Amino acid sequence: MRSLIDIRDLSTQEIDELIKTACDIIENPEKYSEKCRGKKLATLFFEPSTRTRLSFEAAMYELGGNVLSVSSGSSSSAAKGESVADTAKTVSCYADIIAMRHPKEGAPFVAAANATIPVINAGDGGHNHPTQTLADLLTIYREKGGFNNLTIGFCGDLKFGRTVHSLISAMSRYTGIKIVLISPLELKLPSYIKKDVLKKNGIPYSQTTDLLSVMPELDILYMTRVQRERFFNEEDYLRLKDSYILDVKKLETAKPDLCVMHPLPRVNEISVAVDSDPRACYFKQVLNGKYMRMALILKLLEEAEK
Ligand code: NCD
C-alpha cells in the first residue's frame, strides 16, 4: 500500500506530476469535484493544527469526498493508551485514506505499517512534514518557474523545524541549489540532515547566525517559528524565541524578486507590515497546500485501487 511518510517517498517525476495535477485543479476545479465521491479521509491529529488539518479536509470536500476527524489526542482512545498500530487498524475499517499528525517521530510510519489504507504523514514530532513541502514546492514553482539554480535561506529553528527538514530534502534533488542556514547556535540543523542530505547530494551550504549579512544573496527566505513545544525548558525558549524578526527595514538589501516563505503559524518572526510587500508569499503557501493535498489524495487513492 502506497503511503507518504517522507518526501523522499516521491520521485522527482512524481513531484512534477503532482504539481501538474495541482495546476490543472487550479485551472479546472469543476473537473475534480466528483473524483472522490463515496471516499472518506480520516484526519487523525494528535497535535494542534489549523492549516494542515483544515486544508486536508477542504481538499477532500472539494474532491466530492467525506471526512472523519480526530482533532486532538485527548478526544480519542489514544488517551486511554491505545497504540498507534491499533488506531491505524481500526481507522482502516472506516476510511479510505488517513492523514496523521503525531508528536512522536515515526508514528505515521508505524501507522502505515499497520493500516490497510494509505497513510499520509501530516507532521511527526521534530522530524518531517512532507505535505507542507508539497505546498512549498508548488509555491516555489509558481513564483520562480522551477526549482534549479536557487539560493535558499532557512532562518530560525532549524533543529526542531520539521518543515525545514523536509524541504531541504526535497530541494537537494535539483541542480544549482545553494542552502544558507541561519539560526542561533542552539538551533542549528541536525547533523544527520547535513550528512545524509546535504553532503550526500553535494549541495553547497553555509551556516551563520546573521540574517542581514546573507540577505542580498537569497532567492528564497524560509522563515520559521521557534518550536516551543519541543523545548525541554521554557527559559531556553524565552531566550531564543525572538532571535529573528523580519521587518520592512531588513528587506531593504534583499533581491526585488525574493520570495519570503513561512509554513505558519507565525508568532513574531515576520512583522505584519511585511505582509503587504509583494515578496511575501506565506499566504500563497496556505492556498497552494490545499491544491497539492488534493493532488496527493487523488494519486494515493488511485494507486490503492490498482
Ligand atoms: C508547521 C508544523 O506544524 O510543523 N505548521 C504547518 O503545518 N504549516 C510549522 C510550525 O508549526 O511552526
Please render the helix and strand layout as text.
Blueprint: H1 12-27, E1 40-45, H2 51-62, E2 66-70, H3 84-92, E3 97-102, H4 107-114, E4 119-124, H5 130-144, E5 151-155, H6 162-171, E6 178-182, H7 191-199, E7 205-208, H8 211-214, E8 220-223, H9 234-240, E9 259-261, H10 282-305
Parallel strand pairs: 1-2, 1-3, 3-4, 5-6, 5-8, 6-7, 8-9
Helix pairs in contact: 1-10, 2-10, 3-4, 5-6, 5-10
This protein binds N-carbamoyl-L-aspartate (NCD).
Number of helices: 10
Between the first and last Cα atoms, what is the distance in angstroms? 10 Å
Strand order in space, largest sheet:
7-6-5-8-9
Shape: globular
Per CATH, the architecture of the largest domain is: 3-Layer(aba) Sandwich
Strand count, sense and barrel status of the largest sheet are: 5 strands, parallel
For the secondary structure, the number of strands is: 9
Radius of gyration from the alpha-carbon trace, in angstroms: 19 Å
Tally of distinct domains: 2
CATH superfamily membership of the largest domain: Aspartate/ornithine carbamoyltransferase
Which regions are unreliable across 5 or more consecutive residues at pLDDT < 50? Answer: none
The kinds of small molecule bound in this structure are:
N-carbamoyl-L-aspartate
Mean pLDDT: 97
- Specify the structural class: alpha/beta
Broad CATH class of the largest domain: Alpha Beta
Report the β-strand fraction as a percent range: 5-15%
String of helices and strands: HEHEHEHEHEHEHEHEHEH
